[in-house]
Amino acid sequence: MNERYIAAKERWAAKMAGKAKPQVRSTDRLPPGQHEVRNFPVLDLGVSFPGLQFTNSGATPPDTMGAVGPDHFVEILNANIGNPGIAIFDKCSGALIQRVTNNAFFAVQHQGTNVSLGTVVDSRIVYDPQAQRWVACTLEQAAKAVVLAISQDSNPLY
Q: What is the pTM of this model?
């Protein structure tokens, strides 16, 4: 071992004296067989809950996507017509608030008349904290159109 490495190791050992037992991990900067020791913080990941099931969507690939707002988590994925591809969850409890099909979620009205959508795919959703609105888009295959949905406020249901 070289002298710089030994000196650095001794400084580090002096610094670590009296601290909690550190974790050991490998690193590419040290000679083979040597390990660097660091303390890593414990992360609290919060609420964990199951989302939509890929097997129920009927579409391959599922192209899963999700977004988090102030009170909701919205999951969106590809789904065959009639299968729920969008789920809205309570952010704090993980409780399912509503499941809806992609076609119902992206329902289009033109001059007061509902327009029937074909297969919608590759849906995406984001929450814009500045505008306090949800923005979602999808591709409608038959018409080769992009369908855009924007909520009225921070509630994704409106």
A: 0.66
